[in-house]
Structures are given as structure tokens and as C-alpha cells.
Design goal:
CATH class of the largest domain: Alpha Beta
Shape: globular
CATH topology of the largest domain: Dimethylsulfoxide Reductase, domain 2
Structural class: alpha/beta
Protein name: Biotin transporter BioY
InterPro entries: Asp_de-COase-like_dom_sf, CT_DMSOR/BSOR/TMAOR, MoPterin_dinucl-bd_dom, Mopterin_OxRdtase, Mopterin_OxRdtase_prok_CS, Prok_Mopterin_Oxidored
Oligomer: single chain
Largest sheet: 7 strands, mixed
Family: Belongs to the prokaryotic molybdopterin-containing oxidoreductase family.
CATH superfamily of the largest domain: Dimethylsulfoxide Reductase, domain 2
Pfam family, one: Molydop_binding
Number of strands: 30
Number of helices: 26
Cofactor: Mo-bis(molybdopterin guanine dinucleotide)
Length: 781
């Protein structure tokens, strides 16, 4: 076997080497006590059925350029060309769009976790390129956390991700906290990934610490095993989307029984009285009692009331996963949780408050030990184009140019997009209502994609430029949410004629007249060295010594935790003295009522937490037609859609279809059995899935992972059956509310039936039809 070389991924550090027959071997790094199984899928990196070997142009676009029939995307073969021709065509399309419609007509899509590396992270590459080209329409917020990203700054005066790192440590919870109440669990699958790489997985250690300390845990949600069984949590199953109603009812009990912490509310918050008027019904005539919440959630009123009394009796933490706010009115869940925590008065105390994110220990993976220095990335100039669109409103933007949308106190106008340049992501995995997106995707004249593999998005492009994988380039992994610095060596040669994104954009920049400005005269390796040296200089200024680059790249990953000082949280200093350490809200306090949000005048987002029924939930009239609530979650067997063709992902599937979990009672009424292939459908579309029966989901709810590559049976039919099992074929593409316009993926009703027809083969795991330019010129017909 060849000498294994280190690489870093979003799901951990690994060693890659070649066996005697040329096969790839993957070994977890020795310092990781609980490595992610996704690492096994790295062996598929050079799979010829999936990797893109040469630049490719859709046949119609190759012949007619911007006058081609865009409805043929995904239906025509691709013409393989050499790099010079591909880059000339791409540069020509960019220049043509700029001259005809202006840079506002370019949408720069780079949404995804392309690489854990600091330099080769694709978002930094494409944004730098497009900004230097004159700008582009950009997206704001994320599919992961949009509702919270907009709401939390109004409530706490801080970035939502920073607020998530204000959570107490595992040891503090073990020592000071009697109880954690999770709304929606804290799935271990989410604890295996991190945006800038993951040096060591210790989630199970955190759980063991809590269990040994006897911390009581409660899981309120429709899925029991979204909280690790090691915690032996009490499960309170509820209807999806009713978490806010339950929180409001808990607050109602606290208020009417005088169990709320009035001293804390008076000193540290503003607007609780107005919120209490709403909760008690003085404002609208409808008290938010446990009985009221029981009719919505199907959680017995006495359980809600008893839980409120337990929470008031002993210090507790409220836990929230990201998925909870990925639903219509998702803003209200996080706002209501902070209002509940404020009513209890534990915010800023050791082991108290709110856990935002994946759950204890991994929401704040740093456990108070933050990096006291900056880790640089590729420098970004200002975007000359001011237009932005909430990331989850992509389809609306393409469908309705010139129309407006409310967003966080602003009125945004959708531009008319002439060219999409996408790199480092797969919107035909993570966007909602994929059939609708596919129809809208035909509107721009040109779609350019930098991609590693033949994903659904690459197949729906006009120009496909093959990128190298992270394991084929040199870089280093680091982030502010992990305390490891990890070298990334090129363990593999670039596949086929693939180039790294930096080389692609540098060549395009040269053709478009700003090559020197883009590269600053540096090669890719010189940029990596420069970023490392700047990192080392910043660390030295903070009293931390890092090795030179040559020593670092030839050594082991560096664990900084032993040299990082513990820090105090903003909310702790605020609790010590709110006058000396006010929050960055207009009042300087926690805003349970926000005058800023109230003044926006949105009927679906008042100035305090409130209950709004979603258009799709089990209590809506629509449930008569589609009586099952579909919840889709991040997969355990891959990161989003990355390496869906890898062994870890493929082994989890049922006859090559993504698994879907259903309660046995729901299966019995439909005469379904474990292992059946089922058709999951509503009026937006349909997909095939493999059935798994379990009592870990409550009746009326079905549960499946996202990330199976979208594979329409008939590429020419805009509403075709997806034969592989991507739940976003049927999910709801509406904004969470006028406030955040985030994704409402978990507000989705479906029906399910057995699929008795002959099982269609998957096309997505074979390359599209490819012809060479030379053959086309020889046989133009």
C-alpha cells in the first residue's frame, strides 16, 4: 500500500492510500475516537459512473449558444470539448450577459459544503471571481437556519450562530442542570459534520457525561429516536409544527400559577407584559392554555401543565434543533423558546438557558474555548451589485422577475436572471418542490456549473466544467467552530481532466481582463501557504505558536484545545450587569416584544411569539386529501447529497431507493409491509421510496432523509416521478413568513401507496449521454 496521506472532510479527518491493485483505502485518523461512517464512501471518489472527466456542453447550447431551447436541459446529450473551447464559450456567455442585461442578471449560486479547506472552499472562489467581474445577484441566509438567522438578532441582538455558541458546556449542564427539554430532539447524525472540518467526534462522550450525572431529559416531538437512546429520554409525541403552541401553553401555566421569574423579566427583558396579554388571552380573547395546546398538538393538557411546573422547580435548558424552524412560521419556534427560557429565568446561569442547534455538546463544540485569532480565507472585494434574494426564494426569483417580496423590513425586487453560475452545491437536492424549480430553471439563457460529479444540477446545465475533489488538491482545514487545524494533501491525482476551481476562475478571469487582479500573481499552493502564514501570524499575536507551513503539511493535525483559554459568554456578562453589558438590541435587553418587528407590519410576524397554523399540517383541511405529515432530515449516511453514490449511502437504501420510515398502524391501513417500494405523492409531485416500519415515529408522520439525487423517470415531463427518493420532490416551496422567507420544508403533507409497477432503473448513477466534439464535427447530423 502507498504511504497514506492526510485529508480533512466536513465529517472528519482520514488517511488515504492506494493498495497494490490501485484500489483506494481510507483509514480514520487515529485521534478521532468515534469516526463518521461517511468516510468509507471516499473510496468512490474516482468512480467513472459519477465523476465528470472532461468539460461538457449541452448539445443544443453547443450549436446555438444563448439562442438554444432551454427546455431541453436534462434531455439532451453533452458534447465533450477541450478546456480552451469550454472556457471561451463560458467567458463569451458571461460577457454577453453583462453587455445585454448587466451584472444584476447574473445569479451566483454557491450554496453547499464543497470543501473543508480554507482556500479551495468553492464559495470563496466563485464570489471573488464574480465580484471582480462586476458583481452578481447574491443570496442571503441559509437553507439550514434562515428563520433563526433573521429572528435571533431582533430578540438577542446577535448573530444566530454566535448565539448558538452561548450555550452552556456539557460539564456545566451535568453539574448545575436538572433537566433538558428538547423540542425535536438532538440527532446524533447532525453531530458528525462541521463546516470547516471535524478533528475529533466526541458526541457520545457528551451523552455519557449527562447520563452519568443523572440529568433528566425530555424529548417533545414526533420522532422518538431523534434523541440518542443513551439518554433514556421521556418521549412526548406531538403533531409536527405544534411546538410553539406547546411552549405558549407552558408559559401560560407559569403566568397564571405565578411561577415565572418576575425579577429576571423586569431586569433583563422588555415586552413580556404584552406577550403575557397574548398568552393569557387578554389581547385576543383566546387563552393559550394547556387544553388549547392539547387540541392542536395531541399532547395531553396535564402533561403540558406538569412539565411547566417541573421546569419552574429546577434549573433547566431548552434544546432546539435547526430543523424545528424549517417550517412555515418557523421564526415563532425560536422566539417562543427564548421567551419561555426568559420566563423561567435561567438564562446566563451555569447550565441554564437555550441550546440552539444539534444539541448539547455539539451546538457549542468548542465548549467555551474559542479561537482568539482569525483564520483568513480568500479575500473578497465588495459586490458592486446590491441586489440580494433570500436563498430559499430561488424559484420565485426565476419565475417572477420584477415582482417584489417582503423580507426583514425591506421590500426586495426580483431581478430577471439571464445567467446562473453555480459552483459548490446541488440545488436539485436542497431546494423545495423540485419539479417547480425545474420548470423555472428553463428561464435563464445560460446555466454554468462547476462540478465534481454528474449530479442532477450538472445534468440540467448548459456548460459543465469538471472540478477536482478536495482529496485531489492541497489545502488545510480550519474553522472557528472546531479547535483542530488539519493539513490536506493531494492524496489522489485529479480525475480525468478536472481542474480546481481556482484554476478555472483564473483562466476565465484572464479571458475577461482581470486575471492578475484575481490571482494576485499567486499559484494555488502559494495562496495556501500565504493563508497559513497569515493564520500563524494572527495566532502569534494571540500568544499561540504554530509551525511553519512545511512542518505543518508534513505533520499531524494540531489540536489547539489545550492552549485555548476558557471564555465567558455574552449572556453571562449581561446577566452580571445588563447596564454595563447591554445586548445589541434597541432596548439593550432580551426583546420578548420587538417594536422593530412590530413596525414592519407583517400580519404573519407580529412583534412577539405567536401561534399560526401552517397551511400544511395534520390539523388543516388539506390533511383530508394527504393525511401523512412528511418530515425530511439530514442524512446519517452522507453530507446532504455528497457521495450519494458511496458505499455508506448505498448500503442504507432499499432496492436502491431512499428509505422512508412509517408507523406500523399507518402501514396496516394501507396494506403495506416492511421493505415495500412505495409511491409518496401530493399535488406537487411523487417519488419512490423503500419502506421501513418503526414505532419510533408517531402515527400520521413519515420520516426520510434528504440527499438522494433527484432522478425523474421522464426528463421531458416537468412533473415526472422521481424514481430515487428525494423528498424535496414533494415539499412545500413557500417562505416561513414575511420576516425571514426561509424554507418551509417540514410543512408538508403527502399520501403513500404501494408501487406495484415494474421498478424503474436509476439513471442518475450512470453518466449522461456523451459525445466528443470531434465526432460531432465529423458527423454533424
Amino acid at each position: 500500500m502507498t504511504q497514506p496521506l492526510p485529508t480533512a472532510t466536513h465529517w472528519g479527518n482520514f488517511l488515504l492510500g492506494r493498495g497494490g491493485a490501485g484500489e483506494l483505502h481510507v483509514t480514520p485518523a487515529g485521534h478521532d475516537p468515534d469516526p463518521s461512517p461517511i468516510g468509507r464512501s471516499l473510496t468512490a471518489l474516482h468512480d467513472p459512473d459519477h465523476r465528470i472527466a472532461r468539460p461538457a456542453i449541452r448539445l443544443g447550447y453547443y450549436r446555438d449558444r444563448e439562442k438554444s431551447d432551454t427546455s431541453h436541459r436534462g434531455r439532451e446529450p453533452f458534447v465533450e470539448v477541450d478546456w480552451d473551447e469550454a472556457l471561451d464559450i463560458t467567458a463569451g456567455a458571461l460577457r454577453s450577459t453583462q453587455q445585454r442585461a448587466g451584472n444584476r442578471a447574473i445569479y451566483g449560486g454557491s450554496y453547499g459544503w464543497a470543501s473543508a479547506g480554507r482556500f479551495h472552499h468553492t464559495q470563496g472562489q466563485i464570489h471573488r471571481f464574480l465580484r471582480m467581474f462586476g458583481g452578481y445577484t447574491a443570496s442571503v441566509d441559509t437553507y439550514s437556519f434562515a428563520a433563526a438567522e433573521v429572528t435571533i438578532p431582533h430578540v438577542l441582538g446577535m448573530n444566530a450562530y454566535f448565539a448558538a455558541r452561548q450555550s452552556p458546556t456539557t460539564e456545566e449542564i451535568a453539574q448545575h442542570c436538572a433537566r433538558i427539554v428538547f423540542f425535536g430532539g438532538a440527532a446524533a447524525r447532525n453531530a458528525q459534520v462541521n463546516p470547516g472540518g471535524y478533528g475529533a467526534h466526541r458526541y457520545r462522550d457528551h451523552l455519557a457525561t449527562l447520563r452519568a450525572a443523572g440529568v433528566d431529559t425530555v424529548n417533545i416531538g414526533p420522532v422518538r429516536d431523534d434523541l440518542d437512546p443513551a439518554l433514556a429520554a421521556r418521549w412526548i409525541p406531538c403533531r409536527p409544527g405544534t411546538d410553539t403552541a406547546i411552549m405558549l401553553a407552558i408559559v401560560h401555566t407559569l403566568v397564571v400559577e405565578d411561577l415565572h421569574d418576575r425579577a429576571f423579566l423586569d431586569r433583563y427583558t422588555t415586552g413580556f407584559d404584552r406577550f403575557a396579554d397574548y398568552v393569557t388571552g387578554r389581547a385576543d380573547g383566546e387563552p393559550k392554555t394547556p387544553e388549547w395546546a392539547a387540541t392542536l398538538s395531541e399532547v395531553p393538557a396535564h402533561e403540558i401543565r406538569d412539565l411547566a411546573r417541573l421546569l419552574a422547580r429546577e434549573r433547566c435548558v431548552i434544546g432546539l434543533p435547526y430543523a424545528l424552524q424549517r417550517a412555515e412560521h418557523g421564526e415563532q419556534t425560536y422566539w417562543a423558546a427564548w421567551a419561555l427560557a426568559a420566563a423561567l429565568g435561567y438564562i446566563g446561569l451555569p447550565g441554564g438557558g437555550v441550546l440552539m442547534g444539534t444539541g448539547v455538546g455539539m451546538t457549542n463544540a468548542m465548549q467555551r474555548r474559542y479561537l482568539p485569532f482569525e483564520i483568513p480565507a480568500l479575500p473578497q472585494p465588495t459586490n458592486p451589485v446590491s441586489d440580494v434574494v433570500p436563498v430559499a426564494r430561488l424559484t420565485e426569483m426565476l419565475e417572477h422577475p420584477g415582482e417584489t417580496v417582503d423580507y426583514n423590513g425591506r421590500v426586495l425586487t426580483y431581478p430577471e436572471i439571464d445567467l446562473i453560475y453555480w459552483a459548490g452545491g446541488n440545488p436539485f437536492h436542497h431546494h423545495q418542490d423540485l419539479n417547480r424549480l425545474r420548470r423555472a430553471w428553463a428561464r435563464p439563457r445560460t446555466v454554468v456549473v462547476n462540478e465534481i460529479s454528474w449530479t442532477s444540477t450538472a445534468r440540467l446545465a448548459d456548460i459543465v466544467l469538471p472540478s477536482t475533489a478536495a482529496q485531489e488538491r492541497e489545502d488545510f482545514a480550519a474553522s472557528r467552530t472546531d479547535h483542530w487545524l488539519s493539513p490536506m494533501l493531494p492524496a489522489l491525482r485529479p480525475y480525468g481532466r478536472a481542474r480546481d476551481d481556482y484554476a478555472i476562475f483564473a483562466d476565465l478571469a484572464e479571458r475577461l481582463g482581470f486575471g492578475q487582479r484575481f490571482t494576485e500573481g499567486r499559484t494555488a499552493r502559494q495562496w495556501v501557504q500565504h493563508l497559513w502564514q497569515t493564520t500563524a501570524d494572527n495566532a502569534a499575536a494571540a500568544g499561540i505558536t504554530l509551525p511553519g507551513y512545511t512542518e505543518f503539511r508534513s505533520g499531524q493535525p494540531i489540536d489547539l484545545r489545550p492552549v485555548l483559554p476558557e471564555s465567558r459568554h455574552v449572556l453571562e456578562r449581561f446577566r452580571d450587569d445588563p447596564d454595563c453589558h447591554p445586548l445589541a438590541t434597541p432596548s439593550g435587553r432580551i426583546e420578548i416584544f420587538s417594536g422593530t418587528v412590530a413596525d414592519f407590519g407583517y400580519p404573519d410576524a407580529p412583534g412577539h411569539p405567536a401561534w399560526f397554523p401552517a397551511r400544511e399540517w395534520l390539523g388543516s383541511p388539506r390533511a383530508q386529501r394527504f393525511p401523512l405529515h412528511l418530515l425530511s432530515h439530514q442524512p446519517a449516511t452522507r453530507l446532504h447529497s455528497q457521495l450519494d453514490y458511496g458505499v455508506t449511502s448505498r448500503e442504507s437504501k432499499i432496492r436502491d431507493r431512499e428509505p422512508l420510515r412509517m408507523h406500523p398502524a399507518d402501514a396496516a391501513t394501507r396494506d403495506l409491509r416492511d421493505g415495500d417500494i412505495v409511491r409518496v405523492f401530493n399535488d406537487r409531485g411523487a417519488l419512490l421510496a423503500g419502506l421501513r416500519l418503526t414505532d419510533a415515529v408517531r402515527p400520521g408522520v413519515v420520516h426520510m432523509a434528504t440527499g438522494a439525487w433527484y432522478d425523474p423517470l421522464d426528463p421531458a415531463a416537468p412533473d415526472s416521478l422521481d424514481v430515487h427518493g428525494n423528498p424535496n420532490t414533494v415539499t412545500n416551496d413557500i417562505g416561513t413568513s414575511s420576516l425571514a422567507q426561509g424554507p418551509s420544508v417540514n410543512s408538508c403533507l403527502v399520501e403513500i401507496e404501494r408501487y406495484d409497477d415494474e421498478l424503474p432503473p436509476l439513471r442518475i448513477h450512470k453518466p449522461p449521454e456523451l459525445i466528443t466534439a470531434e465526432k460531432l464535427r465529423a458527423h454533424p447530423g
